[in-house]
Specification:
Elements: E1 5-7, H1 16-31, E2 39-42, H2 44-53, H3 57-66, H4 72-89, H5 94-111, E3 118-124, E4 140-144, H6 147-159, H7 164-173, E5 181-187, E6 191-198, E7 209-216, H8 220-223, E8 230-235, E9 241-245, E10 251-256, E11 260-265, H9 268-271, H10 278-295, E12 299-306, E13 315-322, H11 338-351
Antiparallel strand pairs: 1-2, 2-5, 3-4, 3-5, 6-7, 6-12, 7-8, 8-9, 10-11, 12-13
Helix pairs in contact: 3-4, 4-6
């Protein structure tokens, strides 16, 4: 195992402090046989060595220490100054650059694609923990092609440790001033549809349900609240769709060879069409239950449906993290367990 690079298939819970929550989870999913696009993690040791190699640690710490977490202008300036300092001053050592290049080339060879499109995503230490979630605090970059672009986006991704939101959030949670961060480089899916899945009902806490929301294209429009998504509620016992809500999906974000992703209007004929077939919904729900059983706790899962692949090989899991709201509540506070649901369903059936 390299000091700087760990392939996803070698990442595990034991590497949490090296690759962060997101990358450790992806590695565990791969080990569990889940359909995850391959990739590799750049460890926090790489981040630390970049900072020390370029003499940035004390300078960045001084900038963050000056920021008042209760003053928006102060944290905004600290973020701008720290990110500019990092992006302009951070260069890779020769050894690290070679390892990243070799790992990217190995991915290209695995998929048989030159300049393989990848996603470059942050994975902070402490991220996706049950008692704190850094989701959305750091940056991700989609459809990155070619080693030079990958190297550039890795630096930008590392610098997102100093976004204003991250600075304020860490202060509110009492985390250390400048923690370390890992980066995941993962083969990019070209999504026809994408979305999120909770292995419980996020409104009621009912663990006998799987809740799925989906949109056309890349899932960024869903996360950003730009689209009224489709919603599905599936029971975990008989895997039937109990509720469905079709959103009016006016826009989609699609991958673009030049811009990475771009926003387009959805043609009228698709605006009110379901972005997932019933077959895909049921398959996702079963996969979600399998992932929940694997982790032994409810999950918040991101998925994508590959545009150029046939079902079910088209379904990919791109992230899974512990659900953080209902999982903290006592069992008595949630609506129904799976066994209670079976008893209720049978009882109601006897009344018919």
């Amino acid at each position: 195992m390299s000091k700087y690079i760990i392939p996803f298939e070698e990442c595990s819970r034991e590497h949490l402090d090296l690759v962060g929550g997101k990358n450790a989870s992806l590695g565990m999913l791969v080990s569990g046989g889940m359909p995850v696009p391959h990739g590799f993690a750049l460890t926090i040791e790489a981040y630390k060595d970049i900072v020390h190699f370029n003499n940035l640690d004390k300078k960045i710490e001084a900038i963050i220490l000056k920021a008042d977490p209760n003053d928006s202008d102060s944290t905004l300036k600290a973020s701008k100054d720290a990110r500019e300092l990092f992006i302009e001053g951070a260069v890779f050592s020769g050894a690290m650059k070679n390892e990243i290049k070799e790992s990217y080339q190995a991915l290209e060879k695995k998929y048989g694609v030159d300049n393989l499109p990848v996603a470059v995503r942050s994975s902070a230490v402490g991220e996706d923990a049950p008692d704190a979630s850094f989701a959305g605090q750091h940056d991700s970059y989609l459809w990155v092609r070619g080693i030079d672009n990958v190297l550039t986006k890795i630096i930008e991704c590392l610098s997102s440790l100093f976004t204003q939101r991250a600075i304020v959030y860490r202060a509110s949670k009492g985390f250390q001033i400048v923690p370390a961060i890992s980066v995941g480089v993962q083969k990019m899916v070209r999504p026809r549809s994408a979305g999120v899945m909770f292995t419980l009902n996020p409104i009621t806490g009912d663990r006998s349900r799987v809740a799925i929301e989906s949109v056309w294209g890349v899932g960024e429009t869903l996360v950003a609240g730009e689209v009224n998504p489709d919603g599905f509620l599936v029971d975990k016992i008989f895997f039937s769709i109990k509720e469905r809500k079709l959103g009016t999906k006016l826009i989609e974000r699609v991958v673009d060879e030049v811009e990475g992703t771009k926003k387009l209007e959805v043609e009228e004929g698709r605006q009110n069409q379901p972005s997932l077939s019933d077959e895909e919904v049921i398959y996702l729900a079963k996969l979600g239950q399998k992932i929940e059983q694997y982790y032994k706790k409810p999950q918040d899962i991101e998925f994508a449906v590959e545009k150029e692949a046939a079902f079910p090989e088209s379904i990919f899991i791109v992230q899974s993290r512990p659900e953080t709201v209902w999982s903290r509540k006592k069992k008595a506070e949630t609506k129904l367990s799976a066994m209670e649901y079976i008893a209720k369903d049978l009882k109601e059936g006897l009344k018919l």
